[in-house]
Amino acid sequence: MRDTKESRLLLVLLIAIAFALITVDIRGGRNSPVDGARQAAAAAFGPIENGLSTAVDPVGNAVSAVRDSGDRHDRLAVMEKENAALKAKLGSDDRNRSRLNQLDRMLKVAGQGQYGIKGAQVIAIGAAQGFSWTITIDAGANDGIKRDMTVLNGDGLVGRVTTVGPDTATVLLANDPDFTVGTRMEGNDELGFASGQGDRPLRVELLNGKAEVKKGDRLVTFGSQADKPFVPGVPVGVVSRVDPSGGGLTRTLYVTPYVGFSKLDIVGVVVAGPKKDPRDEVLPAKPKPVPTPTVTVTVTPSADGSAPDDSDTNGQQQ
Q: Taking Cα atoms as reference points, which of 261, 104, 251 lies closest to residue 174?
């Protein structure tokens, strides 16, 4: 359209009409005469917006798909079915593949331990509520989340819920200095208490000062009464150092946690504990030892019985 006197007059007229409609809408309040047009537009464009939201954020929808798994009876079968649905929903880019892998491992842990979980995403980190190591998740009271529920991911123990809002919750991480959880050692069932030390390994005080412990031993949560705040059997970490036994009543260990607390994304809140203690069933498979290659040298004697020269020596590897 060319910039003519008529086109400028038309533009001014349209602007005046727009302001008049806005004024009428504001003064009309709930009885606004344009409210019917607004509802019609919402009905027409609402499904399109929902479709775009589904396409843009498939991971958010995927996490929502596991939020009700704690209300089912056959949890493992349901989780396997939901996991297949999640794979179909997620895209193929690197970020979604990574988050899909996190969901897959988390559902596997929940299935092995028979934990009823509600999935959530980490939406904030930091010193919330005065704590040093916390995260905020996008699930709250409206999703059935309550204070003192165990939080885990596909690697193991993440922390416990400390504060709950309608749609979000704060989780105190297991490496926070104010965090303590009862532990049980794999195999010998030695009990202890693990405490967070920030970015350093967890400190564990075993109740038995003469317990036989070595580097590489693994620990899981012992569990609390009524599963609050901790359910049993969640992987905690691997012993990285053992203080020498000094004949005291307790023994100190240092444990490298399974969970990387600086890179949390997809987590699960345990809303229903297992019917029986899974004990060590949730621990990951132990890595197989790598065989050490050996080298042998075979010496072939010469025909006259003299010592062979370098050309008569064959090096062979087995």
A: 261
Average pLDDT over residues 111-127: 91
Name the residue with higher pLDDT: 239 or 311: 239
- According to DSSP, the residues that pair with 220 across neighbouring strands are 184, 235
Write down the pTM of the prediction.
Answer: 0.65
What are the contacts of 284-289 at 24+ separation with CB within 8 A?
284/235, 284/258
**Which residues lie across from 235 on neighbouring strands?**
220
Q: Which of 151, 147, 126 is nearest to 136 (CA)?
A: 126
Distance (Å, whole) CA 247 – CA 231: 32
* CA-CA-CA-CA dihedral for 44, 47, 51, 54, to nearest 10: 140
Q: Please indicate whether residue 141 or residue 73 has the higher confidence score (pLDDT).
A: 141
Which among 235, 227, 176, 234 is positioned nearest to 203, based on CA atoms?
Answer: 176
Q: Are 160 and 182 in contact (CB under 8 A)?
A: no
- β-partners of residue 255 are 202, 239
**Residue 120 C-beta-side C-alpha neighbours within 13 Å:** 31
Q: Which class for 138: exposed (0-12), middle (13-18), buried (19 or more C-beta within 10 A)?
A: middle
DSSP string, 187-241: TT--EEEEEEETTEEEEEEES-TT----TT-EEEE---GGG-S--TT-EEEEEEE
Residue 123, SS3 per DSSP = strand
Burial of 46 (0-12, 13-18, 19+ CB in 10 A): exposed
- Give the residue from 108, 106, 113 showing the smallest Cα distance to 221: 113
Closest CA to 70 of 280, 268, 277: 268
> Does 63 have pLDDT greater than 70?
no
DSSP line for 145-196: --TT-EEE-SSSEEEEEEEE-SS-EEEEETTSTT-EEEEEETTT--EEEEEE
Question: What's the pLDDT score for residue 217?
Answer: 96
- Cβ neighbours of residue 10 under 8 Å, at least 6 residues apart? none
Share of the chain above pLDDT 90, in %: 51
